Each structure stands twice: as structure tokens, then as C-alpha cells.
Amino acid sequence: MLVNTIHGEMDDSLLVKKEGSLDNDIESTTWVEYWLDDVLVHRSVHVTLKTSPLSALEAASIG
Amino acid sequence: MANSQSMVTGFLGKVLTATHNFGVAPVRGTTAADTFNAALLLASGTFNASSTNYTGTVGSVTMSGEVSGTNYTAGGVAITNANVPVATNSSPTAGVGYWTPSASVVYTNVTLTTSFDAVMIYNVTQGSAGAYPAVSIHTFGAQTITAGNFTLTMPSNTTSTALLRLSTT
How much is the pTM? Predict the structure, then answer.
């Protein structure tokens, strides 16, 4: 598979692949990195938002 | 059943479609939805509820505190909006108005070496260079991108998770 890198497209067999993830109340996130000789040549991230702040509106009492 | 004090649920939805105007509103040339953009914000920034505008120029000048890098366009990217705002009763005496973009926001083949941790949603249609009205700030864990994609997938468009939610109390 070809991977877009800072050096252009490279075959992933030449690279070291690292993956990670994060999951909490706000987001579910994954990332993938490709390294060439200890140099990061590609990093993509996918963040899925879970919640957002709620804005409350209130009708005031009269009198 | 007694009367209950509340803003009506329908008001929440009509706020999201600019139906009500208690002050001076922009003159609208069309009933179509406005165009909204999503700009990425540096982790070193101080954007919050008091932020009023996207202060850059869409397509040419980044805002102070906005990311910059290869293949990132000043002002970010346009949001896909095929969802009509919804207003519904969440209980007999309360309601929620909500809206969520209809597709993920994707920054393609970018290199963003300075960490960012938030996105600003703002109105392109009702603004102009230096002053596009901000809608909201959404935070996430700090990231960098190297010759890759940054994809921001929206939460489910429901009363409890939508990206923008207004609620009566």
C-alpha cells in the first residue's frame, strides 16, 4: 500500500507503522503514524466528537 | 393542568433559522442556509465563550491563533450542512433545539506541526474579511498532522449529543 509522506508516496513495507487511540467523554480518537529511520513521515488523525456544551435558555418571571 | 413558564420549544428551532429578530439583523438576500466554516485553533490559543468573530480573511489570511501549514487554507474548510435544525420537546415542560453538520470535516493532506486542540465554527455568509461571526468552539486532545488527513467526525444529531444544542430550563 502506498502512503503519502513528507517524501511523497512510499510503499508501507519500507516504513514502521505506529497506531494509537484515545477515548473519553469528549472524543473517540485514533491516529496512525509512519516512521522512516526514526523520522515521522506521516501522521493522520481521526477525532469523533461525542458531546458539546449545552446552552440553556430561560424565560424570566414577570413581577 | 396548570400553565407553565417557559420559552416554547419551537422558539429554539426558529432561533437556529433566524426567524425571530429582537434587534437589528442583517438583510438577507435569500432564505437559504448560511455557509459555515470550521477553522482549527492552536493549543496555545485562548478562544472561549467570549470569542466573537473569526478575525482572519477566508482563503487568504489566517486568524491569530489559527493553525497554518502545508495545504491548510486560511479559514479552514466549509461545513457540509444538509441537516435542518430540529426543535423537540424533551419533556412535557422542556424542549431542545439542535443541529449538527451532516458530514465529517476533513482537512486533506495537510502538515500542521504546531499542536492544535480546538475548532471554531463560524458564519461565512454573514461576515466579511476580519469579522465573521463565531458560533462555537469545540475542543479535543491536542494533535499534529504530518503529510496526512485530519478528520473531525460529528457527534450524533440527537437531543443529547448534537453539536449545537439549545435547551429550555
Answer: 0.94
Domain that holds residue B81: 9-17+33-167
Whether the complex's predicted ipTM is more than 0.95 is answered with no
Which residues of chain A lie closer than 8 angstroms to B111, CB-CB? Answer: 6
Query: Domain count of chain B?
Result: 1
Residues B72-130 pLDDT 10s:
999 999 999 999 999 999 887 789 999 999 999 999 999 999 999 999 999 999 999 99
Tens digit of each residue's pLDDT (9 = 90 or more) over A50-63: 977 778 888 887 87
Of B109, B145, B168, the CB nearest to A45: B145
Q: Which amino acid is at A47?
A: V
d(CA B46, CA B74): 19
As a whole number of angstroms, the distance between CA B168 and CA B41 comes to 30
Task: Tell me which residue in A40, A46, A53 faces B146 most closely, judged by beta carbons.
Answer: A40
